[in-house]
């Protein structure tokens, strides 16, 4: 997933969980790197170079779509604001036609 785990990791966790969350992200990122490294030669023999890179591009595209819809935007927010947003419970806006929530709706 490239830089996404590192960027999200630095912004999304509350301070008290940042160490544990960071550890989990690092392990899962290196495990995915290991999976790619271990399967690359076998896949190139079975699918060829083009097929292998298309397969990995497909996984990357799925990851991009998942990140776009499920990871909250934290641009311009302080750490405390991000923590407050996540404590209230972040609900991803999966349908693009949903209107954004207003402050009045948040207080209900």
UniProtKB/TrEMBL annotation:
Record Gene3D superfamilies: MFS general substrate transporter like domains
Q: Where in the cell is it found?
A: Membrane
- Annotated Gene Ontology cellular component terms: membrane
The Major facilitator superfamily (MFS) profile domain sits at 1-75
Tell me one Pfam family matched here: Sugar_tr
The keyword Transmembrane helix belongs to this UniProt entry's keyword annotation: yes
Bilayer topology reads: Multi-pass membrane protein
Q: Where are the transmembrane segments?
A: 46-71
Q: Which keywords, in A-to-Z order, does the entry hold?
A: Membrane, Transmembrane, Transmembrane helix, Transport
Coiled-coil regions in this chain? Answer: none
Per the record, the similarity remark reads: Belongs to the major facilitator superfamily. Phosphate:H(+) symporter (TC 2.A.1.9) family.
Which protein, by its recorded name, is this? Inositol transporter 4
């Amino acid at each position: 997933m490239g830089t996404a785990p590192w960027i999200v990791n630095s912004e999304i966790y509350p301070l008290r969980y940042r160490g544990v969350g960071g550890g989990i992200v690092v392990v899962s990122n290196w495990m995915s790197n290991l999976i790619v490294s271990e399967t690359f030669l076998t896949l190139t023999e079975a699918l060829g170079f083009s097929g292998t890179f298309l397969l990995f591009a497909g996984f990357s595209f799925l990851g991009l779509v998942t990140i776009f819809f499920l990871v909250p935007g934290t641009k311009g927010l302080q750490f405390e604001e991000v923590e407050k947003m996540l404590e209230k419970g972040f609900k991803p806006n999966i349908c693009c036609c949903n209107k954004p929530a207003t402050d009045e709706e948040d207080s209900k």
